[in-house]
Design goal:
- There is one protein chain.
- The protein folds into four domains: 40 residues; 110 residues, conserved putative lor/sdh protein from methanococcus maripaludis s2 fold (Beta Barrel), CATH 2.40.420; 85 residues, Elongation Factor Tu (Ef-tu), domain 3 (Beta Barrel); 89 residues.
- 44% of the residues lie in helices and 30% in strands.
- It has a six-stranded antiparallel barrel. The protein has a five-stranded antiparallel sheet with strand order 1-2-12-11-10, covered by helices on one side. It has a two-stranded antiparallel sheet with strand order 3-14.
- Helix 3 runs antiparallel to helix 4 and helix 4 crosses helix 5.
- It is rod-shaped, with a radius of gyration of 43 Å.
Length: 355
C-alpha cells in the first residue's frame, strides 16, 4: 500500500515538473515580447515641441524643413490708412437705360429738325432774293417759304426742349456726373462697360463727414454674407439718391459684374482716414486658422517656429495689414504652415494620452 502511494506521489511530481517546463518553454516568446515592449516604451522619441515664456515653439531640423517643403518670406514695412467698413447696393439701371434711349432719340430728332431748318432757311433766302430782283418769284412763294421756315424752327425748338428736359431729369435722379456720361453720344469706356453689363453700378453709403472720394479712387466690395475674394470698385460720382436702410452720404461706384447681381447688398472696405500707420502686410498664404483665429508661424531660429496671432481686420490686395505682433524683417512661413500646426497638435494629443 505504501509502495503504491509512493508511486502515485512520484508520478504527480513528474507531471508537475513537466507542466512547469512546458509553461517556461511556451511563455518565453511572450515574455520576451513583453519585455521588449516595455523597453521601447521607455525609449523617448525626440520632442519637437518646447515652451519659452509661455509660448509654444515647434522645433524642426533644417533637413526636415527641406523634405517637407517649408519655406519662409521676410515681411516688409508698409503704411496703411485705417479701414472703414460700410454697406452698399447694386443698382438697377433699367431706368437709366430707358432715359438715355429717350434722350438720344430726342437729340437725333433735333438733329433732323436742324438739318431741315438749314435747308428751309436756304430756300427762303433764295426765294427772297429772287423776289427782290424784279419780282422773279411771287410774294406768295416767299410767304410760303417763310411759313415753312418758322415751322421747322418750332420743330427744332421742341426737339431741343425735350432733350433738355430729359437730361435735367436724369441729372436729378442720377447726378450731374453720371448723367453727363450717360448722355454723351461719343463712346465712353466706363459708361459703355456699365451699359453692356460688363460692370455693375453700385451705390455706397458713407458716414456723414467722410471726405469726398477722389477721382479714380477705389474701394473693396464683397457680397454680404459671402467669404469670397473682395472685388475692386472704382469711384464715379456722388449720388443724389439716399439709401432708405442706411443714413449717410451716397456715392456711385462701378465694379466688374462677375459675381455681383442687381439688388445685392454688399459690404464695403475702404480707407477711413487721411493719416496712416506703419506695420507689415501678412501674405494670404502665410495664414492658418485655428479656433476662429488667424495665425502665422514666425521663424525664431534656424529650426524654431513660434505661432503668432494676426489680425484680419484690415484687408489689402496682398493680405492683411498688421501693426502689432509682427515687425519688418520677421520671417513667416508661407509654405507648410499647416504642417507645423499639425505637429503642434500631435504633441498636445500625446501629452493628453500620457495623462
Amino acid at each position: 500500500m505504501n509502495r503504491k502511494l509512493a508511486t502515485i506521489i512520484a508520478l504527480q511530481a513528474f507531471i508537475i515538473i513537466m507542466l512547469f517546463w512546458m509553461l517556461v518553454f511556451y511563455g518565453k516568446d511572450e515574455y520576451e515580447a513583453f519585455v521588449q515592449g516595455e523597453i521601447e516604451e521607455e525609449i523617448e522619441t525626440p520632442s519637437r515641441i518646447s515652451t519659452e515664456q509661455g509660448m509654444t515653439i515647434v522645433i524642426l531640423p533644417q533637413a526636415t524643413q527641406e523634405q517637407s517643403g517649408i519655406t519662409t518670406a521676410r515681411l516688409n514695412t508698409s503704411r496703411h490708412a485705417s479701414a472703414l467698413s460700410t454697406y452698399g447696393t447694386v443698382i438697377n439701371i433699367d431706368k437709366l437705360l430707358e432715359q438715355r434711349s429717350r434722350y438720344l432719340t430726342a437729340v437725333a430728332e433735333a438733329g433732323i429738325a436742324r438739318a431741315s431748318l438749314i435747308n428751309t432757311q436756304q430756300e427762303f433766302n433764295r426765294l427772297s432774293t429772287l423776289n427782290r430782283d424784279n419780282r422773279n418769284v411771287s410774294d406768295r412763294a416767299v410767304a410760303s417759304a417763310e411759313a415753312q421756315l418758322k415751322a421747322d424752327q418750332a420743330k427744332l425748338n421742341a426737339a431741343e426742349s425735350i432733350a433738355r428736359n430729359l437730361r435735367d431729369n436724369m441729372r436729378q435722379q442720377w447726378g450731374d456726373a453720371l448723367a453727363a456720361q450717360a448722355t454723351q453720344t461719343s463712346a465712353n469706356s466706363a459708361m459703355t462697360r456699365i451699359l453692356q453689363q460688363q460692370d455693375v453700378l453700385i451705390q455706397v453709403t458713407l458716414p456723414f463727414g467722410t471726405p469726398l472720394p477722389a477721382n479714380n479712387s477705389s474701394i473693396l466690395v464683397t457680397p454680404s454674407g459671402s467669404s469670397g475674394k473682395s472685388i475692386r470698385a472704382y469711384f464715379i460720382s456722388t449720388s443724389p439718391q439716399a439709401d432708405a436702410a442706411i443714413q449717410g452720404e451716397t456715392y456711385y461706384y462701378r465694379a466688374p459684374a462677375d459675381s455681383l447681381r442687381v439688388g445685392m447688398r454688399i459690404s464695403v472696405s475702404m480707407n477711413g482716414s487721411q493719416t496712416s500707420e506703419q506695420g507689415v502686410i501678412v501674405p494670404r498664404n502665410a495664414i492658418v486658422w485655428y479656433g476662429g483665429q488667424a495665425w502665422v508661424y514666425r521663424k525664431s531660429g534656424d529650426d524654431r517656429f513660434m505661432r503668432i496671432p494676426v489680425s484680419t481686420a484690415q484687408e489689402t490686395n496682398d493680405g492683411w495689414f498688421n501693426s502689432n505682433g509682427l515687425q519688418a524683417d520677421d520671417e513667416v512661413v508661407v509654405t507648410g504652415a499647416q504642417l507645423l500646426l499639425s505637429e503642434e497638435f500631435k504633441y498636445q494629443i500625446t501629452n493628453e494620452n500620457d495623462d
